[in-house]
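Me: I keep going back and forth on a fold encoding question. No explanation is needed for now; the record alone will do.

Assistant:
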Amino acid sequence: MQPVLDERIKGRQGYGLIQVVTGDGKGKTTSAIGQCVRTVGAGKRVAIIFFDKGGEHYMERKVFDAFAVEDHERGLGRVEWWAFGRDRIDPVSGRFDFSVTDEDRKSGAIGLEKARDLMESDQFDLLLLDEVNSSASLGIVDEKAVLDLLKQKHDRTEIILTGRNAPQSFLDDAHLVTEMKLIKHYFYSGVSAREGLDY
């Protein structure tokens, strides 16, 4: 497949684009977090909203807490993050709850409101909306509300949307689309999610 020339941004420099990382393969959040680390390393500010990812078992958040304050001496930026949604992993059985409830939709709406507030504050160079794609496809967040949010973004704010099943409207608005393709995954061989590698 040939790369598509996007006339909207031809010759553009700097931050301010929209990226979508989607697909059924592993590595969507991991890829986006890598970009967050690079952004902090460049002395810039990052905000992350985790949609549909409640719970305390995500190891990357411990690292983000270490970058909550800018380190001007070392030229490092900062990361602030917020998580919305219930913990879907049953603490006893370890099973994942795939249901979508009113509680999920309410939490998704609160997450979008937080994203709007962050956008209006114009304090961040990069805004990661983790799992917003899957949240939109499942009806946890309103697809149109996400599109409205993208229209409100400041010209210099980069936005990354991650998650499976990105709606076509997100793909159309994006300037970069990456699809993670599942070829083989150890999960299907009975290997449980591993701390520090999968969460």
Summary: The longest strand covers residues 45-50. The mean pLDDT is 93. The first helix runs from residue 28 to 41.
